[in-house]
Amino acid sequence: MYKILYPKTELMKKHIVNYDSMQNFDNTSVLRYFVFPQKGTTVAILKNVSIETEGNTITLSKSKKENLKVLFFGKYLQPLQMNYRDSIDEIAINFNETGINYFFSNPYAFQIIDAENIHLDRNRLFQHNEENSLAYLEDYLYHRYKPIQLQAVEETVRSINKNPLQSIQTLAEQVFLTEKTLHRQFQKYIGCSISKYKSILRFRNTIQTHFANSQQNLTALCLEHNFFDSPHFYKEIKKLAHFNPKDFFNKLQASGGEKYPYIFV
User: Are residues 16 and 92 in the same domain?
Assistant: First the structure.
């Protein structure tokens, strides 16, 4: 469904996990799937598209008029349902936890904007030559890049990924900030609270463990990822996935080379 591309320049490698481009699909029926909360965020650039939103549902279809839209997904903490009525030319940028802050302001608000407002060139981005398209996109991002001081937040993210059980007090002491200041900076530059980030991290780690060994039962997943008990496991999965754990892991599919966790409907 998606073709995965990787950053070429050292600067982009620091802030971007990968890019993906939508491949043509049989659009005799609507392609529908759920995407789930992630550690970073995504910006999708879509050519000749009409975008409809209702609640947590985003519906895309071919536009009768030529256009180029940029969809900032922001920091969604619940599943989003994606509906593709047609095959759309699309390139998505998947940023790591802090990456988007170096290129865009107000990055965690869900928004749809015209690409011309941020000086993106439709013809140069969507070329027949994939390498040229990626080179243009990275050159565009390079000229948007603004160095900012995020060492404390980035060190906190690394520390949480190494040991998610650390207290907020410990995390703040490691970067020589008060808990209040760390909370404020984390919310601003990650798009959610530290506790919510920990929940998303555990959720995503549990998914990766399931993909690595789909025969592992739910009790083993619960214990391996330090959920307090089965009710806590049920509550957290239900909150982030809107499915109970049994249904969620039975329906979950690993899509593409990066094993994006989707549920198709």
Answer: yes
Strand stretches in the chain, DSSP E: 2-5, 16-22, 31-35, 41-47, 49-54, 57-62, 68-72, 80-84, 89-95, 111-114, 253-255, 260-264
Angle between helices 230-241 and 194-212 (to 10 degrees): 100
pLDDT in tens, 161-172: 999 999 999 999
Does one domain contain both 115 and 236?
A: no
Residue 198 in domain:
no
- Give the closest residue to 47 by CA, choosing from 85, 87, 90: 90
Q: Could you tell me if 25 and 101 lie in one domain?
A: yes
Q: How confident is the model at residue 24 (pLDDT cuts 50, 70, 90)?
A: confident
**Residues 7/170, Cβ–Cβ less than 8 Å:** no
What is the domain range of residue 187? 149-191
Q: Average pLDDT over the chain, rounded to whole?
A: 95
Same domain, 162 and 233: no
Within a 10 A sphere around the Cβ of 66, how many other Cβ atoms? 8
pTM to 2 decimals?
0.95
Contact 237, 5 (CB under 8 A): no
Longest CA–CA separation in the chain, Å: 57
- Residue 83, pLDDT > 90, answer yes
Task: Report the C-alpha gap between 84 and 87 in whole angstroms.
Answer: 7
Q: What is the pLDDT of residue 237?
A: 97
Pair (168, 71) in one structural domain = no
Let me know whether 62 and 176 are in one domain.
no
